[in-house]
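[step 3/7] fold_predict: job queued, chain A
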Amino acid sequence: MKKAWIFQGGWDGHEPKLTSARFAGMLKDAGYEVTIHDSLTPAEDLDALMQLDLIVACWTMGEISSTQVNNICKAVGAGTGLAGCHGGMCDSFRQSTQWQFMTGGQWVSHPGGDGIKYTVNICKGSSPIIQGLDDFEVASEHYYLHVDPSIEVLATTRFPVVPYYHISNKPVDMPVVWTKFWGNGRVFYTSLGHHDDVFDKSPNAGEIMRRGLIWAGEGKQYAIDHGLTTEPFENTAKMY
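[step 4/7] structure written:
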């Protein structure tokens, strides 16, 4: 049976317990054994992390130790998947550039606050995760992120929608859903999920999250089946 750990915590406004329970249900339906942690302390056990198929981040802001983030980076690099949504993954641990490097982006603003109506535009043909899905509307925080240029963008949204200092620049298509690789590990992110109920109000958002979790968790077995090691990625130079 595949194993997943969910780390829930940080700022309560993002409803980490509700989203963690939802994601745990999705994974259990897919045959996973799921453990939810209210502390980052288990991330200090590298051997345990290496046994996982998937790590799910539901932890807005907060702090992570160098040991904890380095262990997660090593486990994901070896093939353990990493997935999350909204501030629970890409506004986690603002002081950790290594976390941002691995996840592919960092929140910087949501102009207009909550309840902004905007369109999520599906990038057709970009991934099985969005196969058969159409563009859809949401009313939530409109996430403006600083993103890694190496990400594979699966869905976008157009900025600006509301006035703020950024409108002096050209309109941009901001990534909403993306995937990337960290070593042999698969990383999935969606900026949707300010509140847990967005996944009910926008069924496509929930389906994308479900598919993303499954996709990220399949990387471990792929690495095993293809005899992939971390040797190509290892380097003793100072990276951060």
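[step 5/7] annotate
Residues 2-105+177-233 form a domain with the Rossmann fold fold (CATH 3.40.50.880).
The radius of gyration is 17 Å.
exit 0
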